[in-house]
Amino acid sequence: MRVSLKLAWRYLWGRKLRTALTTLAVVLGVAVLFGMNSILPTFLATFQKSLLTSSGKVDLSVSSESGDTFTSAVLATVGSVAGIDVASPSLHRNAALPANKFDVGQVSVAGIDPASAMKLHDYTVVQGRFLQSRDANVVVIPKDLATQLKVKIGSDLTLPSSVGTTRFRVVGLLNAPNVPGVQEIYVPLSAAQTLFADGSNISLIEASYRAGVDRAQIESVVQRKLGYAYRLGALDSGSTIYSSLQVAQYAMSVFGIFALVMGGFIILNTFRTVVSERRHDIGMLRAIGASRGVILGMFLVESVIQGVLGTALGMMLGGGFAIWLLKAMAPLYESLLRVSIGGIIFTPDNFISAAALGVGITIASALLPALSASRITPMEALRPAVGEGAQEANGRGAAIGVAIVLLSIAALLSGNARVVGLGAFTFLVGMVFLAPAAIAPVTDWVAGVFTPLFRGEGTLARSNVTRNPGRAAATVSAIMISLAIVLATLGLVVSIFAAFLGYLDKSLGADFVVIPQSLILSGGNVGARPKLLNDMRHTPGVGVVTSLRVGVAKRDGHALNVVGIDPNTYLHVATFEWTQGGSDAAVAQLAQGRYAVVNGVFAGQNQLKPGDALKLETPQGIKTYRISGVGNDYLNAKLATVYISHENLAKDFNQTVDLLFLGNAVPGADKVRVQASLGKIFAQYPAFKLYSTSEWRTSQTTIFDSTIGLFYGLVIALALPSLLALINTLAISVLARTREIGMLRAVGATQKQIRRMVMAESLILASIGTIFGVVAGIWLGYGLTTVTSTFAYPMAYAFPTASIVLVAITGMLFGVLAAVIPSRQATKMDVVAALHYE
Amino acid sequence: MSIVEVRELTKIYGTGETAVTALDHVSLSVEAGEFVAVMGPSGCGKSTLLNLIGGLDTPTSGAVLIDGTDISGMKDDDLTMLRRRRIGFVFQFFNLIPVLDATENAALPLTLDGKGGEASARALDWLGKVGLADRARNRPDQLSGGQQQRVAMARALVTDPALVLADEPTGNLDSHSAEEISQLLRQASDEWGRAIVMVTHDPKVAMHAQRIVLMRDGAIVDDVKVGGKGGQTAIRAAMEKAGLL
């Protein structure tokens, strides 16, 4: 072992460039995997915190079904349930602020018990202090609200109360609103109870669980003890937002694994070449008594060192990238979604999986070449070195490749979404098998383009590429896989966004959109009583207005968004994108009993079709709805959603507050003036934001554009390993032909000609890789889009012309860049030494 | 007792019509401390003979005995141990590990044998004996061809093997270095008591041996003792007979 270790270390140290390039392949793979898996949990935690319970430490919230206050005796009941760690009471009420005095019309007053609340929430005080147990009429408010209200520490804030007004002394400023979209201020619970004349009532209990408890069991015990007059809000792992973010996490992990597999591919290729380079050394070692184990051990030790080093550096790079990205995106999320992104989360799972995959794939990739090295006979040491001769491609591999590609084509033509998607992946695999045999004919064709540019050197380059089809194919495959993934990802993302904007244009036929500050229709938003809808309808110039309401049902133990729409008005201002033969009649049917429209995500996840029965667990018990249609709207496109009528939502879910409004101006009305009139109404409702549809579209496009920006970052991370593969192959190919290059120089080739020869070789390889990659990428993108379209939201494949151009330019640029170091290596050779090189 | 005993050794490469007989029933014995040069035209089977003696290749038929032990049927691991401990090798192309220095290269067989503690001292000792004490820490690319081959000699001798096999050890050297290596091989035989079997094309190098075995078409055609009166003439006649001159 010691000898293997010593030799491995010396070879790594003695071949620094090679070592660096191989290790870099591991670094990039691990960085993508680790970075993405760090970003996603942070987003998950942020959304969990913001949207459902407003704090990561709250495991359970209890409120009355009616939304009214309830006796504080319930606190003791909840607190007595085994497994509950902390239970904190609070009273939440909206308070209108005198319009003539402040820009802000309304705030949400939270009366809390500071001692228990602080165990559940992180209140970040930026100035002053937080509430204390003995406090009376004091208030802590968000910093930006203080700016809007023009108050500071020590100022008084006058709130309307049951006795007229009550003055509260501002004692502390908080960093950000804890609940997105809601300007919440905090006062002691007793002060709030007095303020609103609520006696000793409360409106919310938040609780946390002890570690390791059965969450579902606690929930059911609490529900049983309190009865169905109380609603339990808990973030269960099956909730739709959670699962949709988890899907994103899986997708990102897949990217990371792809990057690592590509890294593995490069490592395999590198080790294969290293073994052939060291053939004589290995033969000599075997001749003087090195066992096969020593040779195997030497290569495995090299791979372990590179794997560990690459993984450690990859984690640092990925972690740093994640921190930078979150910082860069935080302002965007804060301004658009009013969600403050928390600190980065590095989970132990992430460390373990990145380390296992990084080191594991490196070792696995080195294993085959190492085994073949250990089989080199000592005779090799005695055999005189010969130049690199032409090798034949493996016929059996080609036959397998052709068979797989043919199957993929059959899959593409099958019309079945799952098969089409699978076929796109198998096509990539087939191309990897086929590549060695395809190298020679494709090179002839591609070189035909380059020969006029590179003259005689082009011909030499062509023969250099084709003489070792295995090595050329590995390089081409690495480029193909990375560019294909990049193009497929861009194709899918572009298609999704194009479809979303299409939905937006189609489904939002409205002139105005009024949405809560927080974008996603779910818990956590402050709703409006019917008065607001009435006020809107009576605003001069306003035509049809419809509202959306939200309830939460349970199905198979998972939370599910139930959106209430008004069947009479909805289709005047919005539309559904129907699938499975649905039509607008499905909406009218909602008014005729327990009927529901479900969206594509929900139908896909649950294999449902029109006419099927849908059992929903509602606060009134289990109710059976019949599906009248499957359709998508823009706002809920990403989440599994069920649409029912307002009437049923009130009856079964006790929900009568409006969360979102869509409205039209009457024909011929001045929309700007109408919007201004509506704006006056919404000044009293800070929880809502009024947009014209075009403003709303622009805000959405901004989010899409910035998301696409994020994808370009990913694209770079995914494409870089292929550049390394190309550099590696060229460097090795130059090294293998040292004597030959010496001969060319001896018979009169200039340094420039040698450089051009290497450049031409690089461009030929890059071109073939790019051509294969573009074909495979379009196919893969089409496959992914088809699958997504069938099982999630319907969309057409948007042909990614711009992305293809980008990918092609990237491929060719890589071709030029990759040639720089190897061509220097070739031109700097001492002719005499090169002629005697072994 | 003979260090090397070769009995009716035959090696056939390929089968059927493409079969080539590289060695055809060759028998030979080499005594302890004897320096034998094997000569013959290209393709006569001299390297094949050396490979079979060194346990690098397996014979089609016949036997090779090293120190009385038949190695023909040995398994790979046993052959590896034999080469590591009892045979030293010198190759035409030096075959040093480029990333190790002279001492580390010379110490390799001992290091492989787990004798790391003494390896360095013994390697340095042997480097001194071959005249390279001052280049002990140089890597192969910092040494001339002659110096590299001396490192290879030190590596071959470091385990105190009874037998050293040298395949064209001067084939890649200038005449001055070739002379030095030839003298070193002779010294290994005369002073240090090693049996040397050397394959060479060069008659000048062969003249350093005590005995010259001449081969043609896979068979030994002559076996001549060098030295004494008329030795030169006898070798000349034998080489002419073997078609070397």
Task: Please give a structural write-up.
The complex is a heterodimer of chains A (838) and B (245). Chain A is an alpha+beta fold and 838 residues long. Chain A has 4 domains: 1-31 and 245-383, no CATH class; 60-234, no CATH class; 436-508 and 694-838, no CATH class; 518-686, no CATH class. In chain A, strands 11, 12, 13, 14, 15, 16, 17, 18, 19 and 20 form a 10-stranded mixed β-sheet that branches. Chain A has a 6-stranded mixed β-sheet with strand order 8-3-2-9-1-10. In chain A, helix 14 packs antiparallel against helix 24 and helix 15 (469-507) packs across helix 24 (751-791). Chain A is elongated, with a radius of gyration of 33 Å. The two termini of chain A are 28 Å apart. Chain B is an alpha/beta fold and 245 residues long. Chain B has a single domain, classed as P-loop containing nucleotide triphosphate hydrolases (Rossmann fold), CATH 3.40.50.300. Chain B contains 8 helices and 10 strands. Chain B has helices spanning 46-53, 76-86, 102-112, 116-129, 145-157, 175-190, 203-206, 231-241; strands at residues 2-13, 20-31, 35-39, 61-66, 69-70, 87-90, 163-167, 195-199, 211-216, 219-225. Chain B has a 6-stranded mixed β-sheet with strand order 6-7-8-3-9-10, with helices on both faces. The longest helix of chain B has 16 residues, at 175-190. The radius of gyration of chain B is 18 Å and the shape is globular. Chains A and B meet through helix 1, helix 9 and helix 12 of A and helix 2 and helix 3 of B.
Helix content of chain A: 55-70%
DSSP summary, beta strand count of chain B: 10
The low-confidence parts of chain A are 49-56, 234-244, 518-526
Count of individual domains of chain A: 4
Q: Sum up the overall morphology of chain B in one term.
A: globular
Q: Order of helices and strands of chain B, N to C? A: EEEHEEHEHHHEHEHEEH
Measured between the Cα atoms of the first and last residue of chain A, the distance is: 28 Å
- Which structural class matches the secondary elements of chain A? alpha+beta
CATH class identity of chain B: Alpha Beta
Number of helices of chain B: 8
* H/I helix tally of chain A: 26
Oligomer: heterodimer
Shape of chain A: elongated
Q: Quick one: how many beta strands of chain A?
A: 20
Question: Overall mean pLDDT score of chain B?
Answer: 88
Average pLDDT figure of chain A: 78
Biggest sheet character of chain B: 6 strands, mixed
Catalogue the unreliable spans of chain B: none
Helix fraction bin of chain B: 25-40%
Instruction: Please summarize the sheet with the most strands of chain A.
Output: 10 strands, mixed
